[in-house]
Write a structure and sequence with these properties.
The protein is α+β, with helices and mostly antiparallel strands and 215 residues long. Helix content is 25%, strand content 38%.
């Protein structure tokens, strides 16, 4: 089987790490390659692979794609359930997984491009007040202590994610799609999981529409 891995620059990885923990719009499907006439779909057991910058990101996205496929009646297995962060991400590693679970298809999702802009923002200061009465009528003594936080960075950008489906029997890609996501990470925003769920829904929905899954 010919596994096709997109080669990324280090900058893409750092962009992805920042943006994939942000608020995101619903993924917009921008490109779909029609199902190959020679495809042996529908598929009954799929190995799900995500090739992202961190093992955790891979694990979260794979898990959600597996859940979405399961809701549509298709058995799927996440590659990260059979490896850890030290396992080599190589063609042979995934071929061994295909043999182990008896998969008839493989999905591979990876980052195609990322456009990122960053703006330095001042954080909101925090303050404490100490108010005490004085000897004078209706006069109070007020002490203000203001704690300044380091500046933060606000990220805005676009992520393009590519997903391909490969037939084990045909040893080639039979279908592919791309999604585009607008993302914003505010200065004080914490990790956001919904981007994984939304991307997985877009992938599973498109696969079903293409006739890749048994209905």
């Amino acid at each position: 089987m010919k596994f096709s891995f997109i080669r990324h620059k280090a900058l893409l990885f750092s962009c992805f790490a920042a943006l994939f923990s942000a608020c995101a719009s619903t993924p917009k499907v921008t490109t779909i390659q029609h199902l190959s006439p020679e495809a042996d779909a529908p598929y009954e057991k799929i190995l799900v692979i995500a090739l992202l910058d961190s093992f955790d990101s891979r694990k979260y996205l794979e898990k959600e794609i597996v859940l979405q496929l399961a809701e549509r009646g298709t058995e799927a297995v996440a590659s990260t359930t059979m490896m850890d962060s030290r396992t080599p991400v190589t063609r042979q590693t995934f071929l061994d997984m295909v043999d182990k679970i008896g998969a008839d298809a493989v999905t591979i999702t990876q980052l195609k491009s990322a456009e990122l802009s960053a703006t330095v923002k001042d954080m909101r200061p925090r303050a404490t007040y100490n108010i005490r009465p004085t000897y004078y009528y209706n006069v109070w003594s007020v002490e203000l202590t203001e704690y300044m936080a380091p500046q933060g960075v606000e990220y805005k950008g676009q992520l393009a994610l590519a997903t391909q489906v490969m037939s084990v029997a045909k040893t080639d890609t039979v279908w592919s799609m791309e999604t585009n996501v607008t993302v914003v990470r505010k200065v004080e925003q914490y990790w956001e999981y919904s981007i994984y769920v939304d991307q997985a829904k877009a992938v599973a929905r498109s696969m079903a529409s293409a006739g890749l899954l048994a209905q």
